[in-house]
Automatic annotation (TrEMBL):
Protein name: Carbohydrate diacid regulator
Annotated PucR C-terminal helix-turn-helix domain residues: 342-399
Organism, scientific name: Pseudomonas antarctica
Entry's family note: Belongs to the CdaR family.
Domain CdaR GGDEF-like: 152-288
Domain named Purine catabolism PurC-like: residues: 7-126
Length: 405
C-alpha cells in the first residue's frame, strides 16, 4: 500500500494544512518529505517526494516559485507544500496557483505556526505503517498468484483483515517494460537509471489509477519493470471492456515512452480466487505472445492465443526445438552465417497468406528478389509452400521460432 497526497492531507495533527490547487494529483504517491533549501530542486529530488518550500534560506519571489513548480513537474515529485506566514512567504501567488492547477501538481499551503517536526513525524510514521501494510498485502496477493498456500480460506480471511476484498471473479493483467538495454548502450548509466526509475514510477502510478477506476481496491504488484494488476471481470464482455481500455491507454503511452515499449498480456475472464494462479499463468503466456509477435501491437489476451495455447502447454522444450529444427533448421543456419533474410522472408510470406506482392512490400524488396528467396527456401527445407500440410508445419514452426527469439 502506498501513501498518497490525499492520505497526507487526512493525517491527524495536520488539519491546518490545505490543498490550494492541483487536486488531479491527489493520488500521487509520497515516498518521503523533502525540505527545499536551495533555489532549485531538480538536482536534489528523484521523484515521489513531497517538497516543502520555505523562504528561510532563500528568497522565494514569484519567478522562483514558478521555477520550483516547473522542476517539480519535470522530476515528477508528489506535490509542493508552501509554508506561509508574515516573516517569509506571506501568500501564495495566484499565478502559481493557476499554473499548479493546470499542471495537475498538488499545491498545499502550510502555516509556519505548524512546526515542521510535527509534520515530518506524522508523515514518517504514516510511511512506515503504509509500507508494513503494503508488504502484507503484497505477500497475500503473491501467494494467491503463485498458488503458494495450504488453506485458501485462511489466506482469504487474512486478505479481508488487510482491507482487501477478493470475492468475485477476476482478470489478471501482466505488463513488462522493455528497451532499457538500448538506453544503457547510448547514455550514461546513472542518467539512464534515473530515467527508468521515473518511467517505472509513472507507469505504476497510472496503473494504480486505472485499478482504482475499476474499484479493484487492490495493490499493483511491481518490480524491475514488471507489473501485475487484478481487474474485476465477471464475464467475457467485462474482459473485452478491460482490453479496449488498456489498448486505448497503451498506444499513446508507447509513443511517449519510445525507445522503451510497454507490453501487456491479459488472462481470460471470470477467475475466482481459487484459480488466480491459473489466471496468472494465462496472463504471462499472453504477455509472451504480445512481446514476440509484432502483429499483436503490444497487447494480447489469453483467449486470442489459438494454437499458441497448445505450444505453451508443451513442457518439454526439446520437443519444440526439435520440431523447429526439422522444419526450418536449414533456414536458421543459413541466416546465422549469411545474415537474416530467409526467415524474415518466410514469415512475411506467411503473414501475407502467400501474396508475393504484399510480402515484398512488407520487406521493402523487389518481387523478383522475394520470388528467388521463396524458391531458395523450398529447396533448402524440402517444403512445398503450396502444400496445405507443409504450410501448417511452417506456421507452427514460425510460432516456435518467435517464442524462442
Amino acid at each position: 500500500m502506498s501513501l498518497t497526497v490525499a492520505d497526507v492531507l487526512a493525517l491527524p495533527g495536520l488539519e491546518s494544512i490545505s490543498l490550494r490547487a492541483g487536486d488531479a494529483g491527489l493520488d500521487n504517491t509520497v515516498r518521503w518529505p523533502y525540505v527545499a533549501e536551495n533555489s532549485g530542486i531538480a538536482e536534489w529530488v528523484l521523484g515521489g517526494e513531497l517538497v516543502f518550500v520555505t523562504g528561510i534560506n532563500h528568497p522565494r519571489d514569484d519567478a522562483n516559485l514558478l521555477r520550483l513548480l516547473d522542476e517539480a513537474c519535470q522530476r515528477q515529485v508528489a506535490g509542493l507544500v508552501i509554508l506561509t506566514g508574515p516573516a517569509y512567504i506571506q501568500a501564495i501567488p495566484q499565478r502559481l496557483l493557476d499554473a499548479a492547477e493546470a499542471a495537475g501538481m498538488p499545491l498545499i499551503e502550510q502555516p509556519y505556526s505548524l512546526k515542521m517536526v510535527l509534520v515530518t513525524q506524522a508523515i514518517g510514521s504514516a510511511l512506515i505503517e503504509s509500507e508494513q501494510l503494503g508488504r502484507s498485502r503484497h505477500d497475500v496477493l503473491e501467494r494467491l498468484l503463485a498458488g503458494d498456500y495450504q488453506s485458501l480460506e485462511v489466506l482469504l480471511h487474512r486478505a479481508a483483515q488487510l482491507g482487501m476484498s477478493l470475492a468475485g471473479h477476476w482478470q489478471i493483467v501482466q505488463l513488462q517494460l522493455e528497451g532499457g538495454e538500448a538506453l544503457f548502450a547510448q547514455n550514461d548509466t546513472a542518467q539512464v537509471e534515473a530515467q527508468l526509475a521515473r518511467q517505472h514510477d509513472s507507469i505504476g502510478r497510472r496503473l494504480r489509477q486505472f485499478s482504482a477506476q475499476h474499484r479493484a481496491l487492490l495493490p499493483v504488484l511491481g518490480r524491475a519493470g514488471q507489473w501485475t494488476v487484478l481487474l474485476p471481470a465477471t464475464d467475457a464482455a467485462a474482459a473485452l471492456v478491460n482490453r479496449q481500455q488498456l489498448a486505448a491507454w497503451l498506444n499513446p503511452l508507447n509513443l511517449r515512452l519510445a525507445p522503451l515499449k510497454l507490453f501487456i498480456g491479459l488472462s481470460a475472464a471470470a477467475h475466482p480466487p481459487a484459480r488466480l494462479a491459473q489466471a496468472h499463468d494465462e496472463a504471462r503466456q499472453a504477455l509472451t505472445a504480445a512481446r514476440r509477435f509484432s502483429d499483436r501491437n503490444g497487447l494480447c489476451v489469453y483467449d486470442e492465443l489459438g494454437v499458441l495455447k497448445l505450444l505453451s502447454g508443451v513442457r518439454d522444450r526439446a520437443l519444440l526445438d526439435q520440431f523447429l529444427n526439422e522444419r526450418l533448421g536449414p533456414l536458421l543456419r543459413h541466416d546465422l552465417h549469411h545474415g537474416p533474410s530467409l526467415m524474415p522472408t518466410l514469415e512475411a510470406w506467411f503473414h501475407e497468406n502467400g501474396n508475393l506482392v504484399a510480402a515484398a512490400q512488407r520487406l521493402a524488396v523487389h518481387r523478383n528478389t522475394l520470388t528467388h528467396r521463396v524458391q531458395r527456401i523450398e529447396a533448402l527445407c524440402g517444403l512445398t509452400l503450396d502444400n496445405s500440410y507443409d504450410r501448417l508445419d511452417i506456421g507452427i514452426a514460425l510460432m516456435i521460432w518467435r517464442l524462442s527469439a
